[in-house]
Input
Amino acid sequence: MTDGLGDPRRLAALAESGLVDSPPEQAFDRVTRLVAETLHVPVALFTLVTDERQVYKSSIGVGDVHETPLSHSFCRHVVESGAPLEVVDARLHPKVRDNPAIGDYGIVAYLGMPLTTSDGVRLGALCAIDHEPRQWTGRDHGVLEDLAGAAMAEVELRRANRAVAAAAAELHFAATHDQLTRLGNRRALLDDLGQVLASKRPATFALLDVQGMRGVNDAHGHHAGDELLTRLASRLESTVIGDGHVYRLGGVQLCALLMDIGEPATRAVSAACGALSSGPYGISCQAATVELPREAKSIAAVLRLADARLARYGHVATARA
Output
């Protein structure tokens, strides 16, 4: 369990939930409505307690009030203790009798249940409030506890869905990006090339051959060579950003898919070669371009033509589909 409103783990869980300062949602409004109707109270709140304020994710009976400072919060005591708080008459209760919410909002009777995640983090409270003194029954406690559990089941389901989505995104990234440079890989290139060709949108494919890396590897080791290639790839990506996408086909062969043709594409390719050059290491770059779809209308034709053009520089073809 976490203790204290300022506990970093608790605040991180609040932020990760995405509930603080989010708009009303039917799933949680249904819960507060059931609290009000089942316990016959004029006010029902689903609160999220930060280290500075309490926010109403859902509320019944408080008008346009969406949050209060902690000075007005009864729910903070539920979060701090991790236990239900029963108040028959707030004006007499030692823990809350000086709370200004009694006078400002007419809170007299209060029953609150902690909203706790499956790993023991308390986000806030689900509470029932009356404007008159009230003896809360065991049934009241049971109903509120069950509804708090239902609310947290929704919160946990959302958290699980986010985790699944994040894992799927990580898997997709791993499948479509080069592990060393973090550029798109061959699979990503083939997918993107196929889409561009299918759309018949004018574009330019540039095959970029980085020359001199073998000398770096021989002189400084493969680790230094990998670090240099990663830096060059990052420079390439920064140079091309806004004009297209870059990929690593393998080894020291990179490429770019530019959403332009003619002079703009030529300038982008020139800048890309400049980004891939490194004077201190004797690194240079040769490029071959193919205009799509004018010069090639299939993925295989694009890569074959780019390879043939690079071959004029003594390049060994490796870009075949």
Q: What stands out?
A: The chain has two domains: 8-171, 186-313.
